[in-house]
Amino acid sequence: MDKNLKNDLENIDILLEKVKNNAFDFLKNINDIVAFPESTNVYTPSELNKNGLGGENTLEEFMQRFYKGIVSSAGSKYFGFVTGGTTPAALMGDWLASTFDQNATGRDDSSAARIEEEAISLLKQLFGLPEIFSGTFVTGATMANFVGLAIGRQWVADELGIDISLEGIYSIPPIKIVSATPHSSILKALSMLGMGRKNMHSIPTIDGREAVDIEALENYLKQLNGEPCIVVANAGTVNTVDFDDLKQIGELKKKYKFFFHVDGAFGGFASCSTKYKKLVEGMEEADSITIDAHKWLNVPYDSAMQFTKHPKLQLQVFQNNAVYLGELSDKPDFVHLVPENSRRLRALPAWFTLKAYGQDGYEEIIERNCDLAQLLSEKIEKSKNFRLLSTTRLNVVCFTVNFGEHKVTLENIQQFLNLVNKDGRAFFTQTIYKGTPGIRAAISNWRTEEKDIEIAWEVLNKAYNIYVKTIIAID
Ligand SMILES: Cc1ncc(COP(=O)(O)O)c(C=O)c1O
């Protein structure tokens, strides 16, 4: 055995203790760690060592060279994108998942599959999804959308009497796929599936909203004259967290032939709150559903769930037959259901956090985050410096900056956010909503409390006072 490997093996307890201390230090100070790095261009690339450094020296080098660039994206004031943190129990599960290093691919090779099945069952209870749904873990909502649309593609072809997994995409005419405000990952999935980004047909939204106009959707479906298609419904759009009326889309399914996919990457979590579950009424009518775990479940990257009522079609798409992988059974191994063959035990962090905090714990996180989004919205409504671009429905506040007569440009927003994020205490990301450049604050972290909103508000206003002078100078 290599001498460094041997030494590390003999001292694994000391090494892990050091790592634990570093990790604990990070967690203890997370509120003081910057949410945005000063610069990521300060690293001189290092060469591969001939002899290796051993674990302890490698940890030291890592801490010296890269640690200052590690940001508090898992902290309480990181409002960019839709970013969850990691609950203590999720971290426990994640550490063990790496330690055990199980290949969660077969049903009977270890207890890995039982853990995944149980985590999926707990999640179905959390989201109020009926038993008929099966589910699998994938790496993120983009992959969950990919799997859902792959099953949808298989369903449409099946309706035409073709097994597209065998015959290929060229064996049928282009599949019609429609949505009102799809997430960019839906278009990416269409590209990966050979269905083409350009083949997404856009259905109008209700006036002033991002939710689909049901009448326009019905008119589109009617003129297809029975041709099967895919409808992508959105349960939580990124800018305004708007929800398509899933119940009404479910009703349309009784009259028209379509595969009903719901992208509820973070909006799906509305279902675990008594206050907000109405927003996703009808989600159970879907053929497939995407929900992210590394967003509002607050487990570490990379983790999401894909639920479906069509496991047989899923099997047709993703089966990976080989003698060494064993026979296909009635309950196929996960290797036959998802894009990955070998898989990390990513169900374990989810299982830990669900067991540790239960239904009440998640309802509390969701509702607290939403209350805080309301608090920030109220501050914006009362402020002269900022203006809401939309009603705050759930956990995302979409707003812009007021510069008097000066019309805000995307460049202004970028420059302004640069100032805000450089402060280091809070982090926001840009957007454009209905033509107006703006800012999104997505509150999705279990740690976030009222004091964090107060600090973020101070950061925004401080940056405003600095930036407004630049704007005045421009005009
Ligand atoms: C509605 C929606 N769908 C899909 C995604 C893609 O998620 P991921 O980054 O986990 O692939 C996101 C990410 O923000 C999202 O908000």
TrEMBL record:
Keywords: Decarboxylase, Lyase, Pyridoxal phosphate. Its cofactor is pyridoxal 5'-phosphate. The keyword Ribosomal protein does not apply. InterPro entries: Aromatic_deC, PyrdxlP-dep_de-COase. It comes from the Bacteria. PANTHER family: GROUP II PYRIDOXAL-5-PHOSPHATE DECARBOXYLASE, MIP05841P. This is Pyridoxal-dependent decarboxylase. It comes from Tissierella carlieri. The lineage of its organism: Bacteria, Bacillati, Bacillota, Tissierellia, Tissierellales.
